[in-house]
Amino acid sequence: MRNSLWNLISKYFAGECDEAELVNLHNWISKKESNRLLFNELQRDRELISKYKEMKTVDVDKAWHNLSKRIAGKESDSLITMIPAKNNKPRINAPVLIGLAASVLIIAGLLLTYRSLFTKRVYETIVTSDNHVSLTLPDGSNIFLNRDSKVIYPKKFNSGQRTLNLTGEAFFNVVPDADKPFTVKAGKARIKVIGTSFTVNGRAGNNMIEVYVENGKVSLYKEKLEHTGVMIESGYIGQLAGNQPTKYLNKNDNILAWKTKKIIFSETRLAEVIEVLEKVYGKEIIIENKEALSWPYTGTFNNQDLESVTRVLVENYQFGIEQDRDKIVLTGGNSGI
Q1: Which helix (H) or strand (E) holds 19?
Q2: pLDDT for residue 110 is more than 80
Q3: Domain stops at, among 225, 249, 273
């Protein structure tokens, strides 16, 4: 437990935690007040030790001594144990020192090797339920987050990359920066861009990640398999379910309707019409007359609310309508044929 937690804290300071690891760390911090205090102490000590990197000589003994004094005596789920040495100076128990080999507070050689571990990285987490959220990232890029989605991103991107985690669906408009590739982590999929606008949908079904590129192009690949990635150009959809991504030309006029609320139907079966409306407005719509599901509909809605849209369908097909907070039920109906 202690070694895995140290590794987790190290990855956090390096900005390398995935979504699940961030949740685990936050749960540990909030579990006990002593955990929160220890984590804050580690942040302060990390900043202190990072200053030694900029000096011509690094007083490692002094850094460890200061750190040991801060942690000694604090309740910390026995993460670190201090034992007296012959010279009465505190030192790290040898087994624990081995466990800390990959951690943020490793000895001087790793202080230089893992420079990114000492860069302050604070994360923002945005979660939506039945609403949309528009936000601007530290680099000026914009995200439009769909319902029931979550994005985790650093308040400040590091010097070499712009990386965030997405659960659910979002539209991205990325500011171009050739020196800082922009990467979206969605499940096991990775979407890497320089500057473009695109959507990522983690709810495409069957553990599939779907990417639609509105402008520019992106690379879609499975984590750790970037060399097998597929380049998705403007107007194309990329999908990743296994190891190898695929792509095809988009023919869905309403792929961005959940964001734009511009909805286009042309001889579209009512079953598909209802499916689009449910995604755009986030409300269940039921047609009781199963024959009506195959009736065609042609029409365009531009930024209209759900009440006005359903009114058009009711008038067009002479449906009856029943509704409550959770759903709309269309009854009866006449195709007019």
Answers
A1: helix 19-31
A2: no
A3: 249
Residues 116/158, Cβ–Cβ less than 8 Å: yes
The one-character DSSP state at 242 is S
Q: How confident is the model at residue 66 (pLDDT cuts 50, 70, 90)?
A: low
d(CA 90, CA 129): 50
Strands 262-269, 296-302: pairing is: antiparallel
Q: Which of 87, 94, 43, 31 is nearest to 67 (CA)?
A: 43
pLDDT at position 46 is 65
Contacts of residue 136, defined as CB under 8 A and 6 or more positions apart, other chains included, come to 142, 143
Q: Does 203 lie in the same domain as 112? A: no
Q: How far apart, in whole angstroms, are the C-alpha atoms of residue 284 and residue 327? A: 5
Residue 243 shares a structural domain with residue 262: no
Pair 174, 196: CB distance under 8 Å? yes
- Supply the pTM of this predicted model: 0.63
Cβ proximity of 180 and 157 under 8 Å? yes
Over residues 14-58, the pLDDT tens digits come to 777 777 788 888 788 878 777 777 777 777 666 655 554 444 444
Helix (H) or strand (E) holding 182: strand 182-186
Q: Per the domain annotation, does 155 fall within a domain?
A: yes
Distances (CA, A) of 92 to 36, 64, 107, 254: 22, 9, 11, 61
H or E element at residue 210: strand 209-215
Helices 33-53, 60-71: axis angle to 10 degrees equals: 170
307: left (phi over 0), alpha (psi -120 to 50) or beta: alpha
Domain assignment present for 337: no
Whole-number Å distance between alpha carbons of 318 and 314: 5
Number of domains in the chain: 3
Tell whether 174 is covered by a domain: yes
Q: If you search the block for the tokens 């994360």, which residue do you land on? A: 123
| Residues 80, 2: Cα–Cα separation, whole Å | 8
Domain span at residue 91? 2-118
Three-state DSSP class for 18?
Answer: coil
